[in-house]
Design a protein that fits this description.
With 412 residues, this protein is α+β, with helices and mostly antiparallel strands. The chain has ten helices and 19 strands. The longest helix is centred in the first third of the chain and has 30 residues, at 2-31. It is elongated. It binds zinc ion.
């Protein structure tokens, strides 16, 4: 730790000195409503910020064939106008890649929010807004750390790459495309919201859609039709069965099968003819995405066979997003140890290990490209919910630790 201590005071001073600017960048980023398909404005803000920090910035698009790549999710939208932004900065020593995603999940009904989800609002040390926590606060933390390291110890900063991905929340294809194009380094840090803990692993994640047919009829002769909403009800129990099956042998945190969307019906006086369920399932090794897909197919078929209507009108299953593999970095890996050292130098104690029951883009670096990757980022609340927020002091604390890591990693 001797090396960092030499620079600690200068790094902390630099974080403090550049904090206002980083938080102002965060405000602008949260104000860009970068839901799926609308990532461009946020990406332009990131590109400008990286250029300001001396990165040579480039952009690439999702390749047409990305869905066929190993580990890829099922493509969601055409790639045009949805750049993946990355910047590179020279230096000598070990290289480091910082990876964040600008895509955010939909805000949901605005009446559940205390204020407009895309107008950043300060609340007693927190910044509230969709994406503030997951993970635009991490962008502010990482760019602030880079700026502080460059200001306080420029000779100790190795080659840096910053990847600003899209589709982390549905496929991971943004990061996969960048890595596949050779945008890699000796190690990767994702400033995802980890509450300043180390997150070294993630669950496998599968998205699928179930489509249940009914038979439309006028409501006054409803008996001659089949209500697709009612026909879908047995599948709710089947999804709970699936959750139990995917958790067999899992000793860690329980993995959820989440019924995330349910759409049906055209008119109150019409018997609905179609119901669609959108589901996210999580699982851990030794399950693979292919194995989990087979289990989904089998469990739904079994449930359908028990039901008189579904037995003859089996639900259609479509795998329509994540096909993410579980991943894990050994917490004793030198990358994790170095980041733990940097955290301890700021906080006086070891960071906790966060158990992972979601996924992150780190899986591609670890599984497909053999590059160690880890998540470490600010404290947050209500991510994916209303009044999502990031705790601003933790953005600065995270930057202090990451700045220490950057100068040690590059100089070693
Ligand atoms: Zn995230």
């Amino acid at each position: 730790m001797g090396k960092t201590v030499l620079h600690a005071a200068a790094l902390d001073e630099a974080v403090e000195g550049h904090a206002d600017r980083a938080l102002e960048f965060l405000d602008r980023l949260v104000a860009a409503p970068s839901v799926l398909g609308q990532e461009r404005e946020a990406q332009m803000l990131v590109a400008a910020e990286l250029e300001r920090l001396g990165f040579a910035v480039e952009a690439l698009e999702l390749p047409e064939e990305i869905g066929k790549a190993e580990g890829a999710g099922v493509p969601q939208l055409p790639p045009v106008g949805r750049p993946i932004v990355f910047g590179r900065r020279g230096g000598t020593g070990r290289s480091l890649l910082l990876n964040g995603h600008v895509d955010v999940v939909p805000a949901g009904p605005s009446r559940f929010w205390s204020s407009d989800p895309f107008v950043p609002r300060r609340d007693d040390g927190w910044l509230v807004g969709r994406g503030a926590g997951d993970m635009k606060g991490g962008f502010a933390m990482a760019t602030l750390a880079v700026e502080a390291a460059l200001a306080a110890a420029p000779d100790r900063v190795g080659p840096l790459t910053f990847v600003s991905a899209i589709e982390e929340e549905c496929t991971g294809n943004g990061t996969l495309a960048a890595a596949g194009a050779g945008v890699l380094a000796d190690a990767v840090i994702h400033p995802e919201p980890t509450n300043l803990k180390l997150l070294t692993c993630g669950a496998g994640i599968l998205w699928f859609e179930l489509e249940v047919e009914g038979r439309a009829a006028h409501a006054h002769v409803a008996g001659s039709g089949v209500n697709a909403i009612e026909a879908a009800l047995p599948l709710f129990a089947a999804l709970r069965e699936l959750e139990d099956e995917l958790n067999e042998g899992n000793n860690g945190r329980r993995h959820a099968v989440n019924l995330g969307t349910f759409t049906s019906g055209e008119w109150p006086s019409t018997v609905p003819s179609l119901a669609t369920l959108g589901v996210r399932a999580a699982f851990s090794a030794p399950w693979t995405p292919a194995g989990a897909q087979q289990r989904v197919t089998d469990t739904i078929a079994r449930a359908a066979a028990r039901d008189p209507w579904l037995a003859h009108h089996p639900p259609r299953i479509r795998f329509n997003g994540f096909r993410g593999e579980p991943y894990r970095l050994d917490p004793g890996h030198p990358l994790a140890r170095a980041l733990a050292d940097a955290h301890r130098d700021v906080h006086g104690s070891e960071p906790e290990l966060e158990p992972g029951s979601a996924t992150t883009d780190a899986r591609f670096y670890i599984n497909q490209f053999g590059v160690p990757a880890i998540c470490y980022g600010p404290r947050v609340r209500n991510i994916h919910g209303p009044d999502e927020a990031v705790e601003l002091p933790s953005v600065l604390d995270g930057a202090r630790a990451l700045a220490r890591f950057i100068v040690d990693w590059g100089a070693t």
